[in-house]
Every structure is written in structure tokens, then in C-alpha cells.
Amino acid sequence: MGNLSILPSWKADFVEPEKVRFNTKAPSLDSVRGNDGVLELGSTGSSVAYVQQKLDTILKHYLPFANLAGLDADGYYGVLTYRTVLWLQQKFGIQAQDGKIDEATLAKIEELVRGIKTGEALAKDSVTRTSNGTVSISLDSLTPIDVDPLAPGQNQSIVQPRGPLDLVAAVGVGAPNDSRDVDRVQMALVPEYLGVGDFVRGEFGETTERALLAFLGNPTAACDQRITPTGAAADRLAAHESAQLNSVAPPPPPFALVTDPFIQSSVGANGDERRGDNVKAVQVRLRELGFPVEVDGQFGPKTETYIRLFASIVEGKEQHHNATATLEPYGTVTQALFSPDAPTWVQVKDGGIGWKSVDRDHYDYAVNKTLTVLEQVGAAYQQEFLSTHPTSSLIKVNDVSREDGKVVWRNGAPEHRSHRNGLDVDISLPKKAGSDNFDGGTRTDWADYDQEAAFAIIKAFAENPDVERVIVGDKELRDRALASGHTWATKLLFDEHHSNHLHVDIAPMVGRT
Fold first, then answer.
1. pLDDT digits (tens, 9 = 90+) for 183-203
2. Is 31 helix (H, G, I), strand (E, B) or coil?
3. Which of 192, 292, 342, 481 is the most exposed place for a label (fewest CB within 10 A)?
4. Distance (Å, rounded) from C-alpha 488 to C-alpha 348?
5. Contacts of 358 (CB under 8 A, 6+ apart)
6. 371-399 per-position pLDDT tens digit
7. What percentage of the chain exceeds 90 in pLDDT?
8. All domains of the chain, ordered by start, with CATH?
């Protein structure tokens, strides 16, 4: 890996050609591949549209221009297409550097796209761009590293996020850069290296690249310019994030503190007491808050499940086995448990103003705070959008969490691993009025998708102060929100895997970890 290098973002100056005022029918792709024709400024036709589609993929991967994020496949070889081709020819050392697509340039475009698509398809692959412009794919090994303690029979080996930053794959220059992992690294870089508000969450753009390289000390080798899940750089970044958090005084807990403990000894997986009055006191309180635990004074698997579930609600830990499992007399989770402001575990009702529940597979339990947010967001959506679009879809709430907070395993894989503590909500995309099965689901690329209603729903959620993040699969809407300049737009994270629903994160009581 030592002989690899990543070329910097293209900075060359060039004089853009004058606007072409005539159209020329472009030659076929076969003609270009046979070196019998070229695509050039002013060309129009399906072959131009084909190349523009490929160039759009390359632009989104390399991000060479601050003011050119992609190309529309409109079939017209204009100045933006010319500019992109000229950059590509210069960056990858193609002999003809004239902004025209000849046989060699077309071959390089198709080669790059094949490499990019391969890297995207293999979640653990690293796409490395070499100094001579070629793209190589190196497969990282997938090692099952843990057993889900809540899995049936506790015998299912799973591949799960690893390391101090909870990354699934590498983040950085030349890495696949999954939006979830990028978002996690960005949040660790804020605010010292990555200023708040001047980057797109979940998107590895130039601002994030500069911040990451500054943190890493501007390394030169390609393999040293990214954060891997368990590498030394991940340890450093996690320590930096911890120091940043510890340097700021934490806000006061949103629940009333007690001066006298409600339990006299620790209760839980590593507690001093496994049966008796203190265990019973914890069970009674959990039962009062809606958790269906048995009150028998004995600490068993079911009591542990609901202690961990409650702790994950307070601490914002999406995986229960990482949450507090032992309640100390003066511990934060214990204080929250016995507080009059403690979160309660409730079943999602059928609906309310501006929203309805469409869940059909028993993911219908949530924290009372989540229901409050749904009521507030539904009312805002009703007032700001439905009042003038009365035939549009209500907000359709689908999966939240199961009653016991556990995952369901289907075909050997966990379903909804993040929907564990009633703070994660899936929203079905709205369909246009009059569509068949109006209450059914849709996708961002289907004709019955109501994009304007979706934007209004996203805005209503993102404006709510108790909503931390909204994951969207419609990049156009995410970009529109960012262009609007509203502060709520920074809560949006684009993820192409969310093309059939929105995912909403509700803030926990203390702080998500």
C-alpha cells in the first residue's frame, strides 16, 4: 500500500468554451468505441445521456468540484459535461485532454464506474484510487465477533459494528463511506476539526475530508487516510470525542433527583442482591412504568431484560447488551427509574391529528416521549400542510419497537436492530391522493410517491426540538432542505437504503451514546 497515493481535488484552471448555440447529433457508442467518432461540446442524443449517467456516478464518488455535485442525463453535451470530461482526462492521465470523449476516455469512464459500483456492492471493500488512475478493490475480512445475548438460544453468531466508534466499515479517502459510518465520524470530529453547519451529515465531502486529514495529521499513504473500525486512528478519535464531551459541563438531568435512595443495595447482572426487597422494589417500579416484568423479588433473565431496556431508553443506547445492567442506589439510571419524570413504556395508539399507525407486525411499543413527539409533529403537519392539501396522506407510523425490546430473527439475520428502545420510528412514505391502496407503501422512484407531502413530513419532524435526526432516502429533498438555509436541515441524513421510508431518531433522556 505504500506506493499508493491519492491525488488532491482537481484545482487546475482552464478557460471554459463559449456557449455552443447549435446541436449536433452524437455518434453511437459503438462508433466511439470503434474510434470512428467522438462525443463533444454541442452533441446531443442517447449516447450523450449514457455517458452523463456514468459521469454523474464518478462525480458523486470523487467530489472534485465544490460547485458541481452531479450531472443530469439530459442528452446535451454542454459546458458542465465538457468540464467534467476535461477534469477526468487530466486527473487520470488520458492522452487526449481536449474535453472530448473518444475511445480511450469512454473506456476509462466505464472502468471507473465498474470499480465504484463494485466497491458499493461489497460493504466491507475498500475502493483505492492509484496514482495512475486505476481502481483496485481489496476485500477486508468479515469476522463474527460476538453472540447477541438476546438471540434465541444464544447461538447465532453475528457480524456487528466494532470498535470505539461503532463503525461497520472504513471512513475516509478511498473508502466505501457508508452514510451511517460517515455520520458517526463527523460527530466525533465536531467541533474542533469540523465546524457545525458547514458540512452534510452522512456525506463524505471535501469539508469532511479536510477535517479528517487535519485530525490524522495530513498522512500521505492511501491506507493511512481513513478511519478503520478497530484501528489506532479510531481509538484516537474516540478519545478526542470523549475529551470534547468532558470539557463541557453536562446539562442537568431532566428528572428530579432523590436524596434518599429507593434501593439500599445494587440490583442487576453484577449487583449485590439477586433476590429480596430491593429487587422487588425495582420490579414494582418497572411494572408501574409499563414494562411487563414479573414482581417476584427474584432477579432473573426477564428482569434483566427490562432493566437493560429502561437503561437504554435513558442512555440512548440502541443495543441493549451495551446498556447498564446493574442499578446502583445513587446511579443515574436508578435516579431516572424512581423519578416522577421517568419515561413510561406504552403501546402506540391508532393515531391522532395528522398521523395514524399502520404497523401490522407488533412493532408498536414506544416511550411516552415518542408519542408526545408524534402528537406534536402530527399537529404541525396538519396545520402547515394538510390544511391546504386535505386529500394528502396522513403521517403513517410503521415500526417502532416490540414490547420486550428484542429483535426478531428471520432467516438467520436480525430484523430492526436499531428499533429496540422506543426512540426510533419508521415512517412510511406518503402516496399521492387517488393512488391504488392509498394507505400502502411506496418508494422514492415510484410514480405514486408524493414528494411534496414527504417534504412537509420531514420538515415537521426535523423542526421538533426532541427529534435528533431524520434519515431520508430522497436526496433531492435533503438537498432542497439544505439549500433553504434552515437550521433544521442539518438534522437530515441521506441514506439510499431508505428509499421506501423515513427513519426518525428521538432524543433520549440523558444523551445518546
1. 888 888 887 888 755 677 778
2. helix
3. 292
4. 26
5. 396, 397, 398, 428, 439
6. 999 999 999 999 999 999 999 999 999 99
7. 27
8. 24-121 (1.10.101.10), 140-246 (no CATH), 267-338 (1.10.101), 346-506 (3.30.1380.10)
